[in-house]
Amino acid sequence: MAYSNSINQITLLGRLINDVTEVRVGGEVKGAKFVLACDRPMSKGSDTSKTQSADFVPCIAWGFVAKHIIEY
């Protein structure tokens, strides 16, 4: 059985819930912590009052990606 050296990746589209927090290691910024609100698709059930719901996903980014998130 062959194994890949890659890691799993996902793409989340959502809104930032709070300000991005810098993660410092040894006095240097190494990461960024934030929470995303990702909307769920509206259900197509017979219920006439369709409600929108969201999932709140805690995220941590490291390295170049973290620096980019903090800057922009």
Topology of helices and strands:
Elements: E1 15-16, E2 21-25, E3 28-39, E4 54-62, H1 63-71
Can you describe this structure?
The chain is mostly beta strands and 72 residues long. Helices cover 12% and strands 39% of the residues. It contains one helix and four strands. Strands 1, 2, 3 and 4 form a four-stranded antiparallel sheet that branches. Strand 2 and strand 3 form a beta hairpin. The longest helix has 9 residues. The chain is flat, with a radius of gyration of 17 Å. The model has no long low-confidence stretch (mean pLDDT 85).
Write out key terms for the chains shown.
1 helix; four-stranded antiparallel β-sheet; mainly beta; 72 residues
Portion of residues in helices?
10-25%
The largest sheet is: 4 strands, antiparallel
Distance between the termini: 42 Å
Structural class by helix and strand composition: mainly beta
Give Rg in angstroms.
17 Å
Total number of strands: 4
> Can you tell me the overall shape?
flat
Number of helical segments with 4 or more residues: 1
In short:
With 72 residues, the chain is mainly β.
